[in-house]
Amino acid sequence: MPELPEVERYRTLLGAAALGRPVTEVVAPDAWYLKRGTSVAELRAALVGRRLVAARRRGKLLLAEVEGAPDAPVLGLRFGMSGRLLVDDAAGVDRLLYAPAGDDARYDRFGLRFADGGVLRVSDPRRLGGVELDPDVDALGPDALTVTARRLGAALAGSAPLKARLLDQARVAGIGNLVADEALWRAGLAPGRAAGGLDGAEVALLAAAVRSTLRLLIGRGGSHTGDLMPERRPGGHCPRDGAELRRATIGGRTSWWCPTHQR
Fold it and tell me: Which terminal CB of the chain, N or C, has fewer other CB atoms within 10 Å?
């Protein structure tokens, strides 16, 4: 499932392989995939004959800037639970958890053809992602890869469970289920604690753990590559101290943690 590590790799691929190439065609066979009223006609007017000139990201939202500043639109790509970005058949990530293996053209939901014959594609078997122009970036919280302890502390305010706050994209952008469990395990914090009950030292520890966890998983190739991941199962044990992991639903998601060192 694409979390921040996957989308950061998509951003890198987009920046390296798609920028500066004139767009000749917008391919949008799935009207469901166009969000917030965006139409095929609007996408063609915004993109055909122009180049993508910059790739950036906020959380799990990939943003492609189009030439023609200052009034040119921004193309926003969301990847849901199974979306992959490919440019000229090169993929940003090799595989996604809970998504079919391989590359099946039936799952292509959006694409751009370039003047040199190359193609950018979004493949999404579960159709939970989407494409839009000028997405509302301000609706998202600070990016988790660079979040400071001060901003994280503000995002955690309240009595909701700690993990639920981390998963709330309006508070911190980019953390999904796997990253949350891995970062909390590394920080030694239980996911069910009241988020607003952390003291300053714990908030600083968690902020550092979130950033370092994300950097590690980006380098390894995705959110499924954490040390906790192989043990997120019945009978799984903590890789740090060997205690049997506990499981619960927190923030609407299945959560695994160590009862020994996560407090």
Answer: C
